[in-house]
Amino acid sequence: MKNNTLHIALVGNPNSGKSSLFNCLTGLNQKVGNFPGVTVDKKSGHTKLSDTLTADVVDLPGSYSLYPRRLDEWVSYRVMLNQDKEIRADVVVAVADASNLKRNLLFCSQIIDLKVPVVVVLTMMDMARKKGIKIDLPTLERELGVPVVAVDPRKNKGIAQLKKAIELTSQQLYQAPVRDFIDNRSFADNAIQEVKTHFPELSDYAAIHYLINHESFGLTPVMQDTIENIEKKNNFNPTKTQAEEILQRYSRIRQIMQQAVSEPDPLQKTLFTEKLDNLLLHRRWGYLILLSVLFLLFQSVFWLAQYPMDWIDLGFAKLNQALSSSLPDNRWTDLLLNGVIAGLSGIFVFVPQIMILFGLITVLEDSGYMARISFLSDRLMRTVGLNGKSVMPMISGFACAVPAIMSARNIENRKERLLTILITPLMSCSARLPVYTILIGLVIPQTYLFGFLGVQGLVMMGLYLLGLVMALIVSYVAKWFIKIQEKSFFILELPAYRSPRWSNMVTTMFSKARIFVFDAGKIIMIISLLLWGLSSFGPGNTMQNISSKYETLKAVPGANQSVLHKEYQTAKLEGSYAGILGKSIEPAISPLGYDWKIGIALITSFAAREVFVGTMATLYSVGDEDEGSLLLKEKMKQAKKHDGTPVFTLATGLSLMIFYVFAMQCMSTLAVVKRETRSWKWPIIQLIYMTGLAWVMSWVVYQLFK
């Protein structure tokens, strides 16, 4: 503890309510990074315990025990064993699900035996009561030997008591229990004592873990050899030791449960949760319900976001008009209006949709339905070479492919992990959402089938499902070419159904909006300013020659000044560096129905897909200065080719949507794939197959609808 700031580590089983407690403690005072040296999410936050004491809280990945198997479990394990150089916990808060207490107490008892300051937190007490489970908290606290606090993060109950218990524990007013949950001496006494001669600060149980996993600890070569010799000398058997420990631990847990917990007859009637699962996980109705949920999700994005998006777009158009009429006509004004303002409008106009999408996804996660999607999809996943564990990275890919690919590290099977990494970028991430939205609003009419099925929402859902279906097809084909033979298993604990915690939804919405504005927004602004420069300047004296030519034409008596001004702006854009860049790839994209302006957007959006909209805003602002008060959608509707036909027809719009469904168009994703696979081979394969697929499918769609 430094400067009256505690360092708290939150640990617990998956689905124990740990993340809800973290959100309740820290609110908006959160940040997400990576744990040192690995690509596992590190969620940390700040909270106030009392008037004089604050705390930094780290939400460690969920673990079932102190015997790690996955990479994320190793992260928690190293922190618990003080092997993480950056994270040192003054107090460990062990979260346990009260409705599944026996299983959760295994991990809690292991942490208590490390003799670190521990507070045990019981969550989901309401679910325990519904199951008829009664817990005597004072008795449980006495049996465990550490503070036990019941909380309900969703209703903010018990949080004050928890903060007080953490503060008292940090002041050593609660001492670690003297007696261990297990009898270490019965199977490893001599080895333990020898390890403790070199590490006297260790508990007996921590010494066992040094014997089992010292190769993964940051010890000196001499100390590694010393522990190896202790193992050999005492015939220490890690597997036998672990098995003996678990047996002893569950024997003690059964005694504790008999003392402190009253459970109902297991033959009591089926709970509502199980009846609901029978419907939601039904092999036919389950999929129909899933499709309905997805449709409502994407339709709601349009319903709820339409008005705030229009207000933001109109606000920027009015601001542009006001500034253009009050500022002098020079290069700096042009930079402000067509570079800065156009870039900002391309960022903020999509914040409502991103907030709503992630808010609704959070509701699905909080309610427990997201885990059911994984379970429901396992059979389908196996037919294409994956398993149910691949579903969560793929669903996460609807948010962003970068963390989704990182989360694939939880898949133990190497072939399934590689297949998941290869297909995850085909999931329509949030960066595609602005592209879909502007194009759907541009070429799809706002009509309804049967009076309530919105065509725009159906198209949006269709784009998301198209990416998912193609991902499964690609995985099915690729599984025959990746020659890795490993058995895989899918074990998933279905969390209880819960009413969503609305404060958690709001926190997530603002967090995702902030990430979009400050992370993606920086890229959009940089590219918008770069585009303004590329669109405003050309090689040599090109721009001066164009200007001189049209000044001469304007001086001709009877010349149509309005038409000449439009031709002048178009000629300037074509002669600029941006125009040259777009025209250089026009032969490759014209079969898809795209012109050179769209070509510029395809190039710039390779940095980040959402840049497409900012690029369009910048290009059409530069090219149509006399229409600064129009919304971007209206400017794109009025865009014409040289022959006078509209640029954005139904065929072109659909073709462009399909291109963005399948194309890689993301440098960050390629970089993280290289990092995860430790080879440039797979990102290059990914770039080639996705770009080729995008071109072919876009060409087919354009030919069908033109």
Task: Give a brief outline of the structure.
The chain is an alpha/beta fold. It has 31 helices and eleven strands.
Q: What is the total tally of β strands?
A: 11
Q: What is the name of the CATH class of the domain at 5-170?
A: Alpha Beta
Structural class by secondary-structure content: alpha/beta
Amino- and carboxy-terminal Cα gap:
68 Å
The averaged pLDDT comes out at 79
Overview of this structure, please?
Residues 32-39 and 622-630 have low confidence and may be disordered. The relative contact order is 0.08. Among the domains are: 5-170, P-loop containing nucleotide triphosphate hydrolases (Rossmann fold), CATH 3.40.50; 185-262, no CATH class. The longest helix is centred in the middle third of the chain and has 42 residues, at 285-326. α3 packs across α10 (238-260), α12 (285-326) packs antiparallel against α13 and α13 runs antiparallel to α21. The protein is of the alpha/beta class. It has a seven-stranded mixed sheet with strand order 2-3-4-1-5-6-8, sandwiched between helices. The chain contains 31 helices and eleven strands.
